[in-house]
Design brief:
The protein is mostly helical. The protein has a domain of 64 residues. 52% of the residues lie in helices and 0% in strands. Helix 1 packs antiparallel against helix 2, helix 1 packs antiparallel against helix 4 and helix 3 runs antiparallel to helix 4. The longest helix is centred in the middle third of the chain and has 20 residues. The termini are far apart.
Length: 135
C-alpha cells in the first residue's frame, strides 16, 4: 500500500497552485496554507514510514490522525473549497486501504504438577497436617 506518496504529491501540487498562467491572464489560484501542508506532509510521511516498517496498525492510526486533521481544517473553513473534496477523499481512501493485522496473542502457559493446583492452608486448624478427617 503506497498511497502516502500519492497524497504527498496532491499536497505539493495543491501548495504550488498549479501551472503558470499566461502573462496577460493572472487569475488568483487557491493555495493550501503552508501552516496546514507542513504538518500534513509530516503525517503522510509517518504513514508511509509505518507502512514501510510493516506496521499496518500504526499506519492506520496515523492515517486516521491525518484524516481528522484534514476534516478539522474543512470544518474550520481553512481550505479553499476546490481542495476540500479531493483531500478528504484522498485521506479517507488512504485510511480505508490500510490493513491493521494485530499480532497473535502470546501463548498462555499452564503449569502442571504437584503443589501448583491449590495452596496449602497452614495454621488454619492448629498444627500442620491436621485437616479434621480420618487418616
Amino acid at each position: 500500500m503506497r498511497r502516502g506518496p500519492f497524497l504527498l504529491g496532491v499536497l505539493v501540487l495543491a501548495g504550488c497552485g498549479g501551472g503558470s498562467p499566461p502573462p496577460h491572464v493572472t487569475p488568483k489560484q487557491p493555495r493550501l496554507p503552508s501552516a496546514l501542508t507542513a504538518p500534513w506532509r509530516a503525517q503522510a510521511d509517518a504513514v508511509a514510514a509505518a507502512l514501510a516498517a510493516g506496521d499496518g496498525c500504526l499506519a492506520q492510526q496515523r492515517a486516521t490522525e491525518l484524516q481528522n486533521a484534514v476534516i478539522d481544517a474543512v470544518n474550520h473553513h481553512l481550505l479553499p473549497p476546490r481542495f476540500q473534496e479531493p483531500l478528504v477523499g484522498a485521506v479517507s481512501d488512504l485510511k480505508d486501504r490500510i490493513t491493521c493485522t494485530p499480532p497473535p496473542p502470546a501463548p498462555v502457559t499452564v503449569e502442571h504438577g504437584r503443589g501448583h493446583e491449590k495452596p496449602h492452608e497452614h495454621g488454619k486448624h492448629g498444627k500442620h497436617g491436621e485437616h479434621g478427617g480420618d487418616d
